[in-house]
Amino acid sequence: MKLYTYYRSSASYRVRIALNLKGLPWEAVPVDLRPGIEAQRSAGYLALNPQGLVPLLVDEAGAFTQSLAIIEYLDERHPDPPLLPRDAVGRARVRALALVIACEMAPLNNSGVLAYLKGTLALGEAAVHAWYARWIARGFGALEQEVQDTSDGRHMFAGTVTLADVCLVPQMYNARRYGCDLTPYPKLRSICDHLGALPQFARAAPQMQPDAPPA
User: Fold this and answer.
1) Which residues on adjacent β-strands are paired with residue 3?
2) Residue 203: how many CB atoms within 10 A of its CB?
3) Which residues pair with 65 in a beta bridge?
4) What does DSSP assign to residue 138?
5) Can you list the domains of the chain with their CATH numbers?
6) What is the pTM of this model?
7) In Å, how far from its chain's centre is CA 141?
8) Which residues pair with 27 in a beta bridge?
9) Helix or strand or coil: residue 133?
10) How far is CA 183 from CA 42, 137, 193, in A?
11) Per-residue pLDDT reduced to its tens digit, 37-91
12) Which residues does 61 contact at the CB level (< 8 Å), separation at least 6?
C-alpha cells in the first residue's frame, strides 16, 4: 500500500494517522508541494491523480483520493478498530465534527489558497495570517462548544478515537504553525495533548515523515 503524501499536508496527516491506527503496512511516497517545485502538478502525478492534490492512496484495489473518502474506505475494509460508531446517530455526530474541520476549516489553509492570497491578490503576510486566524477561530469556537457534550476530555466523541479525532490533530498542528491563539479552546487542547501522545498519532506527525526537513 502506497500513500502519496506531503509531510505538512493536513489531509495527508489524517490518512497517516488512520493507517497507523489500523496497523496497516504502508509506504510513503513524498510529493513536494513547495512553490517552485509543485510535484503535484507534474504530468506523472496528474496521470495518477487528475486533481493534483495529496493524499493519494494506492493499493491492490486501485487509487483513491480525498482524505475522508480514503479513511472511510480503510474503515470499511479494515473495520478494527472502528473509526466511526456502530449506530447511525453516533456516525452522524462524528461525521459532522470531522466535516467542520475537513470542509469548513482545512480548505482555507490549503497551500494553494494561501499562495493565491499572497501572490495573485498581493496580500501581505500579516493580512494572510489574520484572514486565516479568523476562520480558525470560527471553526474551533464552534467545536469547543460541541465537544462539551460529546467529549470525555481525551476524545472528541465518547471514549474512543474516531474520525473526528483524526481530523482535529492535524488542524491544531496547522493552527499552531500559523501562530493562532488557541487559549480559548481548552477542551480541544486537552484532547490533542492526549491524542498526540499516542504512538499512532506521534508516528504520523509531520516532523517524523521522510520528506520533513532536518530539525
Assistant:
1) 28, 57
2) 13
3) 56
4) H
5) 2-81+203-208 (3.40.30.10), 88-200 (1.20.1050.10)
6) 0.95
7) 18
8) 2
9) helix
10) 41, 11, 14
11) 999 999 999 999 999 999 999 999 999 999 999 999 999 999 999 999 999 999 9
12) none
